[in-house]
Amino acid sequence: MRNENDKLIIGGHEFTSRFILGSGKYSMELIKAAITHAEAQIITLALRRANTNAGENILDFIPEGVTLLPNTSGARNAAEAVRIARLSREMGCGDFVKIEVIRDSRYLMPDNYETIKATEILAKEGFIVMPYMYPDLNTARDLVNAGAASIMPLASPIGSNKGLCTKEFIKMIVDEISLPVIVDAGIGRPSQACEAMEMGVAAVMANTAIATAGDVAVMAGAFKNAVEAGRMAYLAGLGRIMDKGASASSPLTGFLED
Amino acid sequence: MERINHMEYMEGMETIPEDIMEEVIARMEAYDYDRYTEADVRRALDSNPLAPEGFAALLSPAAMPFLEDMAKRAREETRKHFGNSVYIFTPIYISNYCENHCVYCGFNCHNRIRRVKLDLDRIEAEMKAISETGLEEILILTGESPAMSDVAYIGEACKIARRYFRMVGLEIYPVNTEEYAYLHDCGADFVTVFQETYNSEKYETLHLAGRKRIFPYRFHAQERALRGGMRGVAFAALLGLDDCRKDAFATGMHAHLIQRKYPHAEISISCPRLCPIINNDRINPKDVHEAQLLQVITAYRIFLPFANITISTRERAAFRDNVIGMAATKISAGVSTGIGGHGGEEGEQGDDQFEISDRRTVDQVYDAIREKGLQPVMNEYVYV
């Protein structure tokens, strides 16, 4: 079903999968199954989780050839995000980094202002910066200017599984920003992932919905299919959807003669 | 001996605005749990997010028949916010000298127990032994004696701890903001203070002497800790000291209001209930039964879905194993509440603060978490 010529390009790197899998909240042995069934090529991981001596390190459960996208979760400001990103690079996690700056423990809402600052610093240092943000068009433009490689607006509060609560605002970013827009956080069902793809986002990221599913591997596969279906629909061009009733069969301008 | 006014600050105790304490106490005093009905409980279970009024309903006697529904809702919230993760840590007691006279506590200054303060070499040996079990988070505890275990000594313990652990928490006597800032600089970033009971009149009868007697200074400890730069704070009432429904309500409200005022603060709740202690068999540990304890824990989870909840080693292993994944997210393992009990080095050992029920090692707790299909996590933070 996947079109191998339809590439997702982030920071010069090409991917054929448009489904990014989060690696938090799992039992470790399920991560591999989720990646395999999702056919995901990019996996996010919290550096705070990878930075451990414990017998089970998440890094050992991620298959070869999958691109790591370390995130800066735990950072409360730009300076902390920058330090976590540098630590991630030192630990051999590569140049990709997903900026998460959160100073709200209840809703875990990203701080757009600090995110822009961190993006600017890290982009200059050669990181491929993928900032997680609250979908605000002005912030998205600032992130482009700061050197971001993609924009990652949230669909609804993280972990809420509520779907595309911010749909209209994400649509503005999709329409106005030329970088890949990746919907991140709040996607609870494959149908919501499909809907996001239909509206033209470049990729979808999900974690909780899969990590806490009854059958992790099957749900990972369901998301993969949903993302691919949504992408196909977008590329095919959606049929017209009328906002207010049906189109009049006798057009108002039918009286014109010459 | 004449008892001093427990609401008046002692010399050297910092004062900060008391808005949160006033609100918590007023709401707790107004909380009449017998007026809640089955309909109130059902409404609370259907509401999301849960408002304080719904939290009050879930803690009421009317909610007891809904314990299964509360457990299911708690489990949903836990899975949404924490997935399968369960964090493991252990406490280390470095000194059991205490200047307080708290009638229920094994460390109280009139209790004749073996007192020990570990020197820095023994702290290091103990911490090394603990770290070799695979643990990466430690909670440093002392008895409440600023004379025998002063802030400088605790600070040195924090510096040692940072060499062996990725996360360092403190459960010590309350201190001023600048002292919390110093301890933060030494490597600690999480502060736990149990208010014990939020009923100040009852508090006064239990804490007869010492700095701990000063109710408001203790109440504001979490706020001072956050002002001192700590990442997070933990709250608890010792359930069974007083009316546990009111104390649980106050604990939840205290945590809720602190998070509202300091949105970045990581919030954690502990759920201890009274246990038998050395030289005092009169205290009845059955005051708060398991069902009531579970009601409190699940109500905390539904009201504060983002907060970590720690389940104490006072509880039996089977209870702890069933509560993790459902509502609790943190569990201690390999616990000794005595001094020098981790076998790091030969030396004098001090008596325990209280008796523990779950004596399992780190490996045993780790395996128990795995067997439930959950993921043991040793480290949830990265200092940068």
TrEMBL record, chain A:
GO molecular function, one term: thiazole synthase activity
Keyword Acyltransferase: no
Pathway(s) it belongs to: Cofactor biosynthesis; thiamine diphosphate biosynthesis
Top-level lineage group: Bacteria
Primary localization: cytoplasm
Residues holding 1-deoxy-D-xylulose 5-phosphate: 159, 185-186, 207-208
Keyword Kinase attached: no
Catalytic activity, reaction form: [ThiS sulfur-carrier protein]-C-terminal-Gly-aminoethanethioate + 2-iminoacetate + 1-deoxy-D-xylulose 5-phosphate = [ThiS sulfur-carrier protein]-C-terminal Gly-Gly + 2-[(2R,5Z)-2-carboxy-4-methylthiazol-5(2H)-ylidene]ethyl phosphate + 2 H2O + H(+)
EC number in record: 2.8.1.10
GO biological process: thiamine diphosphate biosynthetic process
Keywords noted in UniProt: Cytoplasm, Schiff base, Thiamine biosynthesis, Transferase
Domain Thiazole synthase ThiG: 10-251
GO cellular component, one term: cytoplasm
Subunit-level organization: Homotetramer. Forms heterodimers with either ThiH or ThiS.
Record's function text: Catalyzes the rearrangement of 1-deoxy-D-xylulose 5-phosphate (DXP) to produce the thiazole phosphate moiety of thiamine. Sulfur is provided by the thiocarboxylate moiety of the carrier protein ThiS. In vitro, sulfur can be provided by H(2)S.
Family of this protein: Belongs to the ThiG family.
Protein's recorded name: Thiazole synthase
Organism the protein comes from: Anaerobium acetethylicum
Upper lineage: Bacteria, Bacillati, Bacillota, Clostridia, Lachnospirales
Automatic annotation (TrEMBL), chain B:
Gene Ontology annotations of biological process type: thiamine biosynthetic process
Keywords noted in UniProt: 4Fe-4S, Iron, Iron-sulfur, Metal-binding, S-adenosyl-L-methionine
Recorded GO MF terms: 4 iron, 4 sulfur cluster binding; catalytic activity; iron ion binding
UniProt cofactor(s): [4Fe-4S] cluster
Biotin and thiamin synthesis-associated domain boundaries: 270-376
Record's keyword annotation contains S-adenosyl-L-methionine: yes
InterPro entries (alphabetical): Aldolase_TIM, BATS_dom, rSAM, rSAM_sf, ThiH, ThiH/NoCL/HydG-like
Keyword Nucleus (UniProt): no
Official protein name in the record: 2-iminoacetate synthase
Organism (species): Anaerobium acetethylicum
Taxonomy of the source species: Bacteria, Bacillati, Bacillota, Clostridia, Lachnospirales
